Amino acid sequence: MQADLSRHVAAGPDEVWAVLTDIPSAHRTLSGVLAVEILTPGPYQPGLRWRETRRMFGVKSTEEMMVLTAEPPHSTAIVSENGGTEYKTVFTVTPDPDGAGSTLRMRFGSHTAHAPAISRVVMALMGGLAERATRKAMEQDLADIAAEAERRTD
Fold this sequence. Notes:
The chain is an alpha+beta fold. It has helices at about 15-20, 25-30, 115-154; strands at about 1-10, 35-40, 50-55, 60-70, 75-80, 85-95, 100-110. The protein has a seven-stranded antiparallel beta sheet with strand order 1-7-6-5-4-3-2. A hairpin with a 2-residue loop joins strand 5 (about 75-80) and strand 6. It is globular, with a radius of gyration of 16 Å.
């Protein structure tokens, strides 16, 4: 599954980056996140790991996340793995040419090459529903990040 969304933010890249990388506050910023547990304390950089609990399909789900790359204030990649399915989310922040704000882009992908056969069958059957739910969660995350960055700019 692949999804690619973007949103204009009335805040500069530094403000967007500050919100995007404030993992300890993610449960306050992102309405879809119920809890965050930092596993490797320290700054936002490759190797930072945390557990993030969200409600998906009406059920609490906790995933371990890790920063794969970080190029402040322009891009970061976050990875996780569950049951043989690998997930990768890439955020990019691009300043507006006129300096009035920025564009936040979120690309999400999942790959089930190492998942058990039954997991691949379930993903194939539930793919459309999972894709719609994922896109909705991504749209909400982008809206929440934009709102917080804009709030911090005021």
